[in-house]
């Protein structure tokens, strides 16, 4: 079966966020071939009900899973790591999102690819631009770097410094 390049966004704002992200990458490496992982970035999005900022990263991988199969695997990992669906903008130990699945465009009740808010979220665009700056958005036909230059809050997303930012 042919392998497809995927980009997955990872985020955590509950508990030991760095450890949770490391664990998520390790768990993801059991189901896909992880080829690159961005640095960690910190961001305190407005409207979230939490004292701790999110720490985010993006990974690139290759998979033979179909999009909905991959989504099911991501949700299994989230559940295994303590994620409970509930408050939409509440704290979460781990959040895993399929951002891009090659150039696939799909919309279903369960999943939309590319991620519908990818182009407006600096906290995923910045780490994605780090590992794939010239990647073309398959719907908007702009590179990730170009999309990042158009978002207003890019300066609010900073490299995570374990000793210096929450």
TrEMBL record:
Catalytic activity: 6-hydroxymethyl-7,8-dihydropterin + ATP = (7,8-dihydropterin-6-yl)methyl diphosphate + AMP + H(+)
InterPro entries tied to this protein: Hppk, Hppk_sf
Catalytic class of the enzyme: transferase
One example GO MF annotation: 2-amino-4-hydroxy-6-hydroxymethyldihydropteridine diphosphokinase activity
Gene3D superfamilies membership: 7,8-Dihydro-6-hydroxymethylpterin-pyrophosphokinase HPPK
Record EC number: 2.7.6.3
Pfam families named among the record's database cross-references: HPPK (PF01288)
Full protein name: 2-amino-4-hydroxy-6-hydroxymethyldihydropteridine diphosphokinase
Pathway the protein contributes to: Cofactor biosynthesis; tetrahydrofolate biosynthesis; 2-amino-4-hydroxy-6-hydroxymethyl-7,8-dihydropteridine diphosphate from 7,8-dihydroneopterin triphosphate: step 4/4
Gene Ontology process terms (BP): folic acid biosynthetic process; tetrahydrofolate biosynthetic process
Keywords assigned: ATP-binding, Folate biosynthesis, Kinase, Nucleotide-binding, Transferase
Domain 7,8-dihydro-6-hydroxymethylpterin-pyrophosphokinase: 7-133
């Amino acid at each position: 079966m042919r392998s497809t390049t995927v980009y997955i966004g990872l985020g955590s704002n509950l508990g030991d966020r760095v450890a949770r992200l490391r664990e998520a990458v390790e768990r993801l490496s059991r189901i896909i071939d992880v080829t690159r992982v961005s640095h960690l970035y910190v961001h305190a999005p407005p409207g979230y009900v939490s004292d701790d900022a999110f720490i985010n990263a993006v990974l690139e991988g290759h998979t033979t899973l179909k999009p909905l199969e991959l989504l099911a695997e991501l949700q299994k990992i989230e559940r295994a790591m303590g994620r409970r669906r509930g408050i939409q903008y509440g704290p979460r130990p781990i959040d895993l999102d399929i951002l891009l699945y090659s150039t696939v465009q799909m919309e279903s009740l369960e999943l939309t690819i590319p991620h519908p808010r990818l182009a407006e979220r600096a906290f995923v665009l910045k780490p994605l631009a780090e590992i794939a700056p010239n990647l073309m958005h398959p719907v908007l036909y702009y590179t990730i770097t170009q999309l990042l230059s158009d978002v207003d809050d890019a300066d609010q997303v900073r490299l995570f410094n374990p000793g210096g930012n929450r």
